[in-house]
Known about the structure:
This is FdhF/YdeP family oxidoreductase. The protein has 27 helices and 29 strands. The protein is of the alpha/beta class and 734 residues long. α2 (40-49) packs across α3 (74-84).
Amino acid sequence: MSKRLDPRNWASWRPFGLGLRKPNNYLELIKAFRSVKGNRRYAWRILTRGTCDGCALGTKGMRDWTMREVHLCNIRLRLLPLNTMPALDVSVLADADRLAGKRSAELRELGRLPYPMLRRAGEPGFTRVSWDEALRVAAGGLRDARFGAYLTSRGMPNENYYAAQKAVRALGTNNVDNAARICHSPSTVALKDTIGAAATTCSYQDWIGSDLIVFIGSNPSNNQPVAMKYLYHAKKAGTRIAMVNAYREPGMERYWVPSNAESALFGTKITDEFFGVHQGGDIGFLNGVLKHLIENDWIDEKFVAGHTTGFEEARRAVSEQSWEVLEALSGSTRDEMLRLARMLGEARSAVLVWSMGITQHTHGEDNVRAIVNLALARGFVGRDGCGLMPIRGHSGVQGGAEMGAYATGLPGGLPVTPENAAKFSGMWGFEVPSSPGLTATDMIDAAHARELDALVSSGGNFLEVLPDPGYCREALSRLKLRVHIDIVLSSQMLVPAEGDVLLLPAQTRYEMAGGVTETSTERRVIFSPEVEGPRIGEAWPEWKIFTELAAATRPEISRLVRFTGTPAIREEIERAVPFYEGIAGLRRFGDSVQYGGRHLCPGGRFPTPDGRGGFSAVDPPALERPDGAFSVATRRGKQFNSMVHERMDGFNGAMREAVLMSPYDADRLGLPDGAPVELRAGERSYRGKVLRAPLVPGNLQVHWPEGNVLLDETRRSPQARIPDYNAVVTVRAL
């Protein structure tokens, strides 16, 4: 990799991009410094001694295993106040109606939850109770009840996931799910089916020096900012970068890496080639690329013959799909598909990266299968500079399913079957249910139908993350017991219920005695030690909350579910999840173990029954859009998950109410920037203001979660049960 300045990659000759539209990362540092006033020493210790609780790149302190440079992104800076703020005044909870109109950011800014709080049915608000009283109320509502448990990914360590799913199963149900369901569950399903491993096959260092990186429905400039430093170094090493997306993301066009002198001063051109596709049209485009690879003899025939199955079926499927159909579905052209096919065909190595632009569709599993087909066709698996990477947006999400906090999976990702249930029954000493449980969306459906009595929600906010907030609100109100475990307030806590509502205060990962671990996108299990600093009221670690709930509900098995601390949990994880070997030995800051090593499927040896990777015959989905209608997708702005940090996105100037529209469509409809419009999807509607953006015509984007009011809660993918975060709408000027 060259260390010389390279003006060919510069984004601008203006020093620091002065006068250009871009985020001000140095201003973020100032804001972070101000936001932790009174706790700056503690904040500094978190930044330098803790493992990042932001996206799933997994920096230890401000460094990682990819390069010897300092890393610090604005996502992590924006999370600092949550980890350092003082306790809220619990008197504000005496009247929940006074808080009901506050935005989520305003609720968080009130401070940390310090004590267990209880709201009885019909009462105006919450009163403080002891932990003994809280556990007694919870046990009374959970005993012999139909209930489910949901865990978010915000900073959730492996120890919490593991203990929680074990406690829930000790209570006789597999109704436990986590945020991976609404992020990358189609990736889990499709990768397991095709290559036998439900995780990224490579490491971040494979980006640097690879011939080609292709981002498909993914925008790391917003969601994984530290990754932009990797891309800067990849460009310096000669890597070409392509992007397949409906929107030409400004942050992926050019980016100023604040901790690198050259990029901070002149910026970096990131994307070399952009391929515009319709939202939902990825299969049409990717199948067209595969069709070109086959027709031009750009297939790695030796790899395909020696290490894969199903190629003839996949070849036959795409040969029967006409170019006219693929073009209409994708919104692209045969020539554009050829352009990417040639890039893949000429590349000796490539990494294919995707995110929720691929997964959050009713056909999300097939989207991923179409990507896998391209990697197998060129042999881009199991060697340096190559891989399949479903990049994760949250530090806790990779470990969630692997720890077994999944309605359809047990620890180690084992499917819920009688044989696997018997295995864990023998290990744990109590009977484990043998049939899959309710997924997160199924739990809301069951609550709405009054077929669920209680819900335990650790973090998260269904009113903001799932389609149709009104439907979710009604479902939450019909429960006889809700238990909310969190560090701060959220709007779903304030929804009145037909029964009791408990708020239980949790510790952050940095407060947990014995330290904890997270699993990064590259399968690296990283230790994060307890960080010395202030502690909040009577907050407990979530692993203890779940195990004590189980012990209070079923006292006869209390000894089977309790742990003495996080080291004991890690010892049990190592026994329950064999590929996590080494987790029990992680004790000090910076300790890590990467399961599977740098590459999964080394040398083309796949962890499948026959040792081969499997091609898929992927049929294009039937996407119908009436004349004059648009496809609308939900996007992220200046936020982390549903936590909105700023009303304006520094990359494109979009306010939260923006309706991103192509200039072609805006001109056709006579809509200038700022024009108020209404989007309608049947009886669902959303009002916003037009903002012209480099989108493929026929497509719109609105911010998530504000745009969730347009989404149909019944639309989900067939296997992963992920909600569809897209809709077909009409546009009316107001």
